[in-house]
Amino acid sequence: MLAITNARIHTGTGETIEEGTILLRNGKIEALGKDIDVPAGAEIFDAGGRPVTPGLVEAHGHVGLANEGVGWEGDDVNETIDPVTPHISALDGINARDRVFDDFLRGGITSVQIKPGSANILGGSAVAVKTGPNNAADDMIIKANTGMKAALGENPKRAHGADKDRAPYTRMGSAAIMRDWLFRAREYVEKRTASDSKTGYDAKLEALAPVIRGEIPLRIHCHRADDMLTAIRIAEEFDVPYTLEHATQGFKIPEYLAERRVSCAVGPSMSREAKVELEGVGFETAVAFQRAGVPFCLTTDHPVIRALYLHMIAGKASAAGIGPDAALAAVTASAAEHIGIADRVGSLETGKDADVVVWSDDPLDGRSHPVRVIIDGEIVYERE
User: Fold this and answer.
1) Neighbouring residues of 247: CB distance < 8 A, sequence distance ≥ 6
2) Which of 101, 236, 267, 381 is the most exposed place for a label (fewest CB within 10 A)?
3) What is the CATH number of the domain that holds 359?
4) Do residue 257 and residue 134 come from a single domain?
5) Are 374 and 355 in contact (CB under 8 A)?
6) pLDDT band at 196 (very low <50, low <70, confident <90, very high)
């Protein structure tokens, strides 16, 4: 058993426990609170009054697919041979030895949802993993299929229409392709479930079947407000679950999103306006979402912004107006909810995974850093 004592515990859900204690046993949080008895024989770590938080959760990244400093040989983010590749899985491209996983640990990030990129209309399934220990991707899995990556806006029409002279050339073409394949998938599911079905196996449609059945969401890349509206329009037409990824111009339509309770992964808010659809990038969307009641989390979209800076992004969002509790939740509990892994991670609660970070100071202060990072009750990073 590991006991963290004399800690300022931020649970990730808005509660703060002064001079608290957390007991970790068999990879789970056994107890936490102000007056917790530490069993004899427990290994004790005195936090010295420092802040302790849940392990941070990166809701949208490409670590292990975009291998750091490697170039083409290590770039496995997008399968650009075809604009429709739902049958591929991020899990099959993850290099667990990508050195950036060390960056995640140094930044206090213990969980990440890894997705294929946004070059394709339907890009493949995502996976949620722990960021260490980095032995094999299969050993790091929290949830094997967290959603189907989809994309609208500039990226698909650039990757295919502009670069390869094929559809989609336009936003209209992108929407038409998405509709077509969702329709095919719906018919496929209906025929496959019929008792007299002779419908043969189709890898692409089989991968889309869990979306049609409502088992996993479409995770739709969209920056511009009109692309967000198109994403919602199509998802509602087919009555499938969905999230919006990036939602850069969400500040233009917060009430519309709030009415539908659309969960959004916002970011990377510290990037530059590198393309037209990033007009207005910044923290205005997070503030608008907080005020309107839109469910959201924050993301670095690693490697667009180094994941090491996730806690700094939360700090900037807090300073912009969402406040410290919402900012911390946006990279812990809310991020876990967005991914669909909140039953295990994202908050410090009895029975959840023992993923804990001890910070040198306020985790929303850019000058702070993790002193100790724990995953499943094991110390995976320490800094004096």
Assistant:
1) 222, 223, 228, 257, 264, 265, 266, 285, 296
2) 236
3) 2.30.40.10
4) yes
5) yes
6) low
CATH of the domain at 165: 3.20.20.140
Domain of 365 in residue numbering reads as 1-54+346-384
Q: pLDDT per residue over 116-134, tens digit each?
A: 999 999 999 999 999 998 7
Dist. CA 41–CA 246, nearest whole Å: 47
In this structure, are 283 and 368 located in the same domain?
no
Name the domain count of the chain: 2
Q: Which two tokens stand for residue 143?
A: 């949830």
Do 58 and 307 meet the contact criterion of CB atoms below 8 Å apart?
yes
69 and 19 assigned to the same domain: no
Pair (196, 310) in one structural domain: yes
Q: What is the mean pLDDT of residues 83-89?
A: 98
- Taking each helix axis from N to C end, the angle separating 225-238 and 171-193, rounded to the nearest 10 degrees, works out to 20
What pTM value is reported for the model?
0.97
CA 99/CA 335 separation, integer angstroms? 23
DSSP structure class, residue 200: P
133-191 pLDDT, tens digit each:
878 999 999 999 999 999 999 999 999 999 899 999 999 999 999 999 999 999 999 99
